[in-house]
């Protein structure tokens, strides 16, 4: 986990964080006696690169803005808080999500939260995975890909059944990036419907056994979708050994759609001639045969 590296430890509960929010609000908007020098508006302060440590006053201002009513400023504050490797920043994001945020702010807050993942995040992200806004649900699922928690993976699988296509796409992408093996069967069903996101995610997950299972879908899924999926498997640099690639080439050769030849051509074009690779030679023979030897 990221926080094992930067020293973050998840907090317990929101009570302590509310005190941080109170401190932030006091620093950002205190009385003249407590803070004689007026703070410049946040918009006029120069942006601080993420590689440069921010001062505590900036952190307090960002936390205060996140708690404010200006949606645009709150979203920018959430983005900024994601650049801090500090427990107070992370906890402020969690606390704000627990209290409830407008969709644009929630999207920024979840994206920021996932930059420094911690176990406590999963509860909040799963909650927003059921939000009424498709864009919020999709962002939550995207963020959950970075968490190995079984409940995070279950939420990603559930997202594959969402009624909205963009959310299913986000869930499929999350399943591929998070290596969610439980998502394979639901994605095969979506592949049968021609959903490109599932073709791409299945290709990311495929080992030789899964590649055979995907190839067995011939006749059950659209030819173009199957060719895309198998072609992406074939072009993966970490897929192999080469006899497994030969099997994939032969599976693609069965597909009559023009997409099959296109995928094999891409493979030949992106694979060096030397050292000789049987899978490349097999692909060349299939291409020549389909093009009449031209």
Explain how this protein is built:
It is a single chain. This protein is mainly alpha-helical and 294 residues long. The chain folds into 3 domains: 1-118, no CATH class; 129-205; 218-294. Helices cover 63% and strands 0% of the residues. The protein has 17 helices and no strands. It has helices at 2-6, 15-29, 56-66, 71-81, 87-99, 103-113, 121-128, 134-144, 150-159, 165-177, 184-192, 196-205, 208-215, 223-234, 242-253, 258-270, 278-290. Helix 4 packs parallel to helix 6 (103-113) and helix 5 (87-99) packs antiparallel against helix 6. The longest helix has 15 residues, at 15-29. It is elongated. The N and C termini lie far apart (54 Å). The model is unreliable at 1-57 (pLDDT under 50).
List keywords for this structure.
63% helix; mainly alpha; 3 domains
């Amino acid at each position: 986990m990221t926080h094992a590296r930067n020293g973050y430890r998840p907090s317990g509960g929101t009570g302590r964080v509310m005190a941080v929010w109170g401190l932030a609000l006091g620093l950002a908007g205190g009385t003249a006696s407590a803070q004689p020098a007026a703070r410049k508006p946040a918009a006029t302060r120069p942006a601080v690169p993420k590689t440069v440590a921010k001062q505590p006053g900036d952190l307090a201002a960002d936390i205060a803005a996140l708690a404010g009513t200006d949606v645009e400023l709150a979203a920018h504050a959430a983005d900024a808080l994601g650049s801090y490797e500090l427990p107070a920043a992370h906890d402020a994001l969690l606390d704000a999500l627990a209290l409830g945020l407008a969709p644009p702010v929630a999207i920024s807050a979840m994206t920021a939260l996932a930059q420094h993942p911690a176990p406590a995040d999963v509860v909040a992200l799963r909650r927003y995975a059921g939000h009424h806004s498709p864009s919020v649900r999709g962002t939550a699922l995207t963020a959950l890909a970075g968490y190995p928690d079984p409940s995070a993976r279950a939420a990603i699988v559930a997202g594959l059944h969402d009624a909205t296509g963009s959310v299913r796409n986000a869930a499929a992408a999350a399943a591929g990036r998070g290596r969610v093996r439980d998502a394979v069967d639901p994605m095969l069903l979506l592949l049968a419907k021609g959903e490109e996101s599932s073709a791409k995610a299945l290709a990311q997950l495929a080992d030789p056994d899964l590649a055979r299972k995907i190839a067995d879908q011939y006749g059950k899924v659209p030819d173009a979708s199957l060719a895309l999926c198998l072609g992406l498997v074939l072009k993966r640099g970490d897929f192999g050994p080469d006899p497994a690639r030969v099997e994939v080439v032969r599976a693609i050769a069965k597909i009559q759609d023009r997409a099959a030849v296109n995928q094999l051509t891409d493979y030949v074009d992106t694979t060096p001639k030397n050292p000789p690779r049987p899978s490349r030679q097999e692909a060349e023979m299939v291409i020549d045969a389909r093009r009449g030897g031209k």
